[in-house]
Amino acid sequence: MTTAREVMTPTADFIEPDKPLADAAREMAREDVGALPVCDNGRLVGMLTDRDIVVRAIADGRDPATTKVSDIVERTEVVTIGADDSIEEAIKTMKEHAVRRLPVIDGTTLVGMLSQGDVAQAVSKSKAGDLVGNISAQPANN
Question: Rounded to 5 degrees, what are φ and ψ at 93?
Answer without folding.
Answer: -65, -45
